[in-house]
Structure formats: structure tokens, C-alpha cells
Amino acid sequence: MSSSDVLMRIDGAGRVIEWSPLAAEAFGWAAEEVIGRTVGELVREAGIDDEWLRTTCTAMHALVVMPVLTGSSVVWELRATAGAFSLRDLALLRVVFTQSPVGVHVLDDQLRIVRVNTAVSGLRGFPVDSLQGQVFSEAYRITAPEEETAAARGVLESGKPALDRLVRSMVGSTGGKPRIYSVSYARLESACGDVVGLAVSTLDVTERERALQRLKVLEQVRKRVGQRLDVMGVCEELADAVVPAVSGIVVIEVIEDVVRGEQPPLAPVDPAVPLRRAAFRGQASAHPVGEVRKLPEGTPFSRVLTDLRPRLVQVQEDSVWLAADPARAEAIRRSHAHSLIVAPLSVRGEAPGVVSFYRHGREDPFDEEDIALTSDVCAHTALCIDNARRFTQERTIAATVKRKLLPQRPAKPSTVEISHLHIPGPGGGGAWYDVIELAGARTALIVGDVAGRGMATATTMGQLRTALHSLAALDLEPDELMARLSDTAARLAAERAALPAGDPLHREPLTAGCLIVVYDSVEQECAIVRAGLPEPFAVAPGSSTVRVPVAAGPLLAGTGSAPFPATKITVPEGSVLAVVNEEIRMPSASLDSLLEKGAARPMDDLCDTIAYALRECDESEKLVLVARTKALPPDRVLTCPLPSDPEAAPLARAAVRRQLKTWQIDEESAFTTELIASELVGNAVRYGTPRIRLRLILDRLLTCEVSDSATSAPHVRHARTVDETGRGLFIIANVADNWGTRFNSQGKTVWAQQPIGASQTRPPTYQPS
User: Fold this and answer.
1) What is the pLDDT of residues 292-320, one digit of tens each?
2) Which of 60, 318, 539, 686 fits as disulfide partner to 80, beta carbons 3.0 to 4.6 Å?
3) Taking Cα atoms as reference points, which of 210, 60, 68, 196 lies closest to residue 132?
4) Which SS3 state, helix, strand or coil, does residue 756 take?
């Protein structure tokens, strides 16, 4: 805008100090008639009304009033400019400068304030009268003046507005805490494009920003705290979430019993109760993380655990409570901490611990609003700690139950060298193993896994394991044994589904897998059945490790009717078998290479080697059962085919007598074995079908087996006194330690076992026929 557009200049008192020829032409007054008079006098004298103003503004296109800084004073220029500038626009400007709640400032090109609106006077402690002529950043005592000056000059140069800049200012501050203003800059230009200054708006948004900051902190705490299910982990999450968002230093101390999963005490807490320093973030720590100690009495920390009331404490060198804890006092001094909030971790009147928030150095001191924030943070954390404590408690109980349900003294068969490796996962798990000795020098190696964790998983594992032992006593074939176990699991799953909808177990499906290996040390072969678990490993002497290709059966309690096919393999003496509950992938070595390298070593050493390699794996529960096979020596087995006529019994007794004499079996055991063999052979001749075979096996127990081709199941009868037959199995059940029937594709085998050298009870009137 050129100087020729200036109509007049008016001082701060409203008097005309300059009058241009353009004004003389427009208003009809000469300069000497106007200079020195006030604008109000001229308006009244001329009788100017709205109609005259509309006509004049239309002829001159627009009238603009602009402040101009002259020295240390401000004068006003009335200029004519080309543009549609109406009375409505003037009214809007009047409202902005007299009624708007937003502070409006007009700056010249040197960023000096030339005019402010009435809203600026509402700022607390703001010296409005002395604003004119001051640089904006200095007038507002902005904490980062260089940055703000650069932003304002950038708007002057580019013309691009800078909107809603959050600026910290000491104007109107209380307690040494700066206030926050939303500042926007816009460049002022004439109709000709000349830059004449800046328009700056300011709005005090301190309360809004502090509220948003509190909400942001709480959102981060709720998002980050509680992801882990151990007490120490929750405390670490809290420390990471609040530093530096809330304070530069935080100390979290939790009652030691809570860390172990026990119930926290009610307030007031006994001063003798020890606390563990669970987490720390800051510069200097009075005590290392993990240290357990009592809180000294007579301090804000002990007082908080007495009444569960948070405390705001201004830390000073002469604070009385510092003397009660010299180590903490020294750490506070080294950290230059000046403000402290001590807040309790409290839930349902119980006190799991205490949190100390420190601000130090140039951080703003805490105020009453910060107490509400830290209390909300600690309330959420206390709930997360309580959840973690309950989980730890349940995990401890579940682990104890599981240990009781697992084999306390695993069987040690003479024909298999056994060892196992069990690495519990977080929260426990449902993996188990069993070694069950079967009749005929056979051994069942079993690994199972119930998905889940906690008490429900542990009890389900115990139920399946008990059912498996009961089924194994029936001497079922491995495929039928697995099918019966799956039926049991299906019944357990149905019981879960029938629970009330509010029961957590109702929504948790039963998922379980199992693998059964039955090793026959006489035939040197294995029958393997698997339901969901990985294929086993086998290492024959002098050979490399292989995955045994076992057909996969469905998971236990599956919905389909798929069978559990059995796979039979030959296992040379000295072979190593390994069964796992899940696929194991190690970064440094593979399981098959470890098995191959350690096949000749003792089984316990091999398990240790595997455990060392698993240290870098994931934290899931892992179970490895390894076994080295042994063959029963041929001279410990007698196999004798028999005819299908009454001559079979005497032939059997004679064969048994000779073999037991060779084995040097005591007379009483030999007599009992003759009796058992005679009765079993007699039943096979009477009720079975050819081929009949007698087999004696001498291991830890003396086993007598009689096989035939019939599939009918024998059962014990209680014969009457006058009956001449029907007492065979009844007698065997009384004189043998155990007996049973095993079915296979060729027929059945009835067997009876007795300990060698044990006294036997035999009916005094019975004589074998």
C-alpha cells in the first residue's frame, strides 16, 4: 500500500495529526480545519450517518484502519484501498477486538506488539498496559523464545499460516509450572501484497493439555501394564510406562509374600513385613532391584502402607524423614530429586506394595492433580499385580498337583534303560509320561500332553493318566488302548461342555495328544500308536537317527471316527528311542543329531545334553522320554508247541518241570507254575482251537503263557461243590500274582505271573489231572 492511500493519521487520544489531500477531497475539510481535533468532534459536526459511510466506502472501495509504531508510541492510519470492505466487516473486527475470548495480537514486521484485544487482559498476571512495543516472545516469557521467533519469521517470509502451536509460557504460571498456550500466526498483507505484519491468536489450553496428558498416560499404562503374568514383570511394565511420562524416577516395592503368590496383608501393614524392590528407573538407586528389606518407620513410605493414602512430599535437605533411611536419602541427593509422590498399591483394602514417583532436576514439581493421576495408575497396577499373584498361586498349586500325579518312582524295567527330560513352561502345562511294565517282558513307553495350563489341565492330565493305567492292566493292543483312552477323553470333554455357561472351563475345549510305544524284549520289536504328537526318533547301534514313520491318528476326544493305526518296527538290542510332546527346534543343534551323538552314553547324560541345547528355545513346556532297549536272553524263554488233545497237559507239565529245574527255580514256585501251566493248557484244549503254544518267560517275574487261535474271552467261574470242572481260572487267580488275556490277530494269549521264590497258596485237596 503506497503512502498516497493514507487519508489521515490519528494519535492514541483520537486526535487527527495528519490530513491528506485525498481526505480533503473526500470529506470537504482542509487540513488546517481538522488537525488537532478529535475524530468524534468531526463526526458530530459533519452529521455523518450510515448512508454517508456506505456511499463513501463505495466510492473509495474500502477504508482500512491500521496501527503504526512510531518510536515508542502507536498512531493509527486511515487508508483507502481497493477491496470490498463493508460495515459488516468492521463490525466483525470490533467483536474480535472487544468480545472474543481468544487473545488477538497485531505484530509489526519486527514482531513487536502494536495492538491487542480485550481478551488479553484476562490472562492472569499479564501486564497488558506495557505490551505495546514489546517483542511477542519476550512479552509472553516463552520458555523457548528462539524457536518461536523462528516460527513467526517463517510465516512472515512464506505467508503460510502456522496454526495451533503449543507454546509453554511463564505468563500466568503458578507454583513455577509454565502454562500452555495454543498460538497461531497469520501474515497481514495489503491489497497490493505488501507485508505489514502478523496477526497472532493465543488461547490458554493448559488445563486441556494437562487433562489430555493424564489421559494419555493412563491409556499407556492400561495398554502396557498387565501383559505379563508375573508380579515382577508387571512392576517392570509399570516402570517403563511412567518414566518419563509421569516422573523421571520411579521405585516400585512389593511385599515379598505377594511375589510368591500369597495373599497380601490388609492395611495397616505390620512394619516387620519385608518388601522386595521389584523395579527401578532413574539415576541412582538406594538398593538393588530384587533386594528384600523392611521399610524404615517414620517415613512417607511406611505411612502410606498404614493408611493407604497417597502423599505429596516436597523433598528438602532438612526433611526429617530422610534421616530414617540414609541410603535412600543419599540416592535422592545424588539424583537431585525435589518432589515426591508416594502412592499405595491397593486392592480391596489389601496392600501389595508401594510406588514412589520422584521428579528431579528441571522437571516441574508435582501438584494435587498429579496425586489423582498417580493414584489411578497405581490402582490399575494393583489389579494387574493381583491377577499375576493369583496366576502365580494357581500355577504353584497346579505344579504341585502335577508333581503328585506324575510318576513318583518311575518303573525301571530290566529290558529298557529309561530317562526323561521335563522342562515346565510358564504357567505349568499338561505334559506327562509313563513307563508301564506289561506281561511277557514287554514295556509300554507313554508320552501325553493336555493343552492348557493351570489346575484344570493338571487334573485332566491326572484323569487320563489314571485311565491309561487301568486300561493297560487289561493288556490291550496299543491301537485298542489308544481308542479306549480317546473314549475316556471324549467323556471328560462332554462333562466340560455340560458345565454351566458361566464356568470358565465350559468355554475351554479339551485338547490332548498321546503316543504309546510297546516294546517286546523277546521279539525285539515295537508297536507304536500316536494321537496328535510328533513321530518318535530311533537310533539303531551304528546307524544314524531316523524319524519312525508312524501313521498319524486323530487327537484324543476327536469328533471323527478315524482309527488309531499301529505301526510295528524291529528294534535291535541297544537301540535308542526318543518320544517328545512337541516338535523341538534348537538354534544350535538338532535333536536327531544329539541323539545320534549320545546314543552310546548313559540315558541321564543324554537328557542333560538335550537340556543344555534347549536353553535358547522358546518357553513352552517340553518333555522328552528316551529309552535304550535290551533283548531278553534266549535262554530265559521256553517256547513249546502242544497238541490239541488231552495229552497236552502232561506234556506241558513235563516241559515246565525240566525248564524250571534248569533255571533253578525253588520247589514251591515250580509246583505253582506247573499247576498254572496245566490249568491254562487244559482250558485251551477244552475251549480253544489249534494252534496251542506254551511259553515260559523268566524276567523279574516268572510268566506262563498259553496261546491258541480262538478269540473267545475266558472268565472266572465260581463252581459249585459238586461240579467237576470250572475251577481253572479261579485257582490261577488265587495262586498267581497277576493274570490276564491278550488278544492279537492270531487269537489270544492267557498268561499268569508270579514272583520267583514267593510263597504260594494252593488248595490242599487239588491235584492236577
Assistant:
1) 999 888 899 999 999 999 999 999 888 88
2) 60
3) 68
4) coil
Closest CA to 283 of 327, 336, 343: 336
User: Among the listed ranges 62-76, 262-276, 283-297, which one has the minimum average pLDDT value?
Assistant: 62-76
Asked if 414 contacts 478 with a C-beta cutoff of 8 angstroms, the reply is no
Sign for the CA dihedral angle at 176, 181, 187, 191 comes to negative
pLDDT in tens, 140-155: 888 888 999 999 999 9
> Strands 249-255, 177-189: parallel, antiparallel or unpaired by DSSP?
unpaired
Residue 8: CB atoms within 10 A of its CB come to: 23
Residues contacting 157, CB < 8 A, separation 6+: none
All cell numbers assigned to 48:
455523518
Q: Write down the H helix ranges in 346-367.
A: none
**DSSP symbol at 15:** B
In this prediction, residue 696 carries a pLDDT of 95
36 three-state secondary structure:
coil
Cell of 45: 459536526
Query: Does 509 sit behind a cis peptide bond, omega within 30 degrees of 0 on the bond before it?
Result: no
How many helices (H) and strands (E) the chain has is answered by: 20, 31
What's the distance, CA 167 to chain centroid? 39
Query: What span, in angstroms and rounded, lies between the C-alpha atoms of 155 and 162?
Result: 7
Do residues 286 and 328 make contact, with C-beta atoms less than 8 angstroms apart?
Answer: yes
Residue 721 has pLDDT above 50, yes or no: no
What is the C-alpha separation between 638 and 625, in angstroms, rounded? 32
